[in-house]
Description:
With 183 residues, this protein is an alpha+beta fold. It contains four helices and six strands; from the N terminus they run H-E-E-H-H-E-H-E-E-E.
Amino acid sequence: MLIWPILGSFAILVIVGFVLFCFVYLVNLLGFLTALKAKLEREGEIVKAWLVFANENLFRKSSEHDSLPAMFVCTLDDVSDLEEKLQEWAEAIRHFKARDNDAVDEQIIETVVRTEYGNRYPVRIPKWITGKKYKAYFVCISVYYKFLPDGKLTKPYIYCKFYKGEEHDDGDAEMVAYPKYDV
C-alpha cells in the first residue's frame, strides 16, 4: 500500500515538470518572435509581394479585424520590370518541382506548394527560376482585411515590410497598407 503515495508523488512531479517546461518554452518563443519583429521594424523594407496562392475567403469581404495567410513572392532587389518578374516567379512557384533533392529551400518550396501550408520564414527561390541577377523569396504573409481596398483581395499583390538575413530562420514579412497612389 506504500506504492500509491510514491506513484502519486511521482505523477505530480512529472506534471509540474511538464508545465514548467512548457512555460520556459513559451517564454523563449515569445522572446524570439519579439526580437524578430523588432528586427523587421529596424531593417525591413516596404516591397510589393505577388500572390502565389491564397485562401478563397480572402476574395470575399470580411471584418476589418480578420486576417488570413497567403503565399507570395517578393524581392529586395531593384528590378526594372518588377511586376512582370514577380508574375513570372509566382507562376513558376505554382508549378514548382524540386530539381535538387539536397537543396533544403527547394524541398521546403515543393512541400508548401503541395500542401498549401505556409512556411514561417522566407525561402530563397532557386536561381534556375530567378536567374543569377536577382534574389527573390517565397514567403507566407498574413493578409489583413483592414489594409485591403474594398475589404477583400482584389489585386494580385500586396505591400509588405520585408527583410531577409543570412541565416535560414532570419527573415520576416508583415503586410502594410497599400500606398495612396495604388489604392
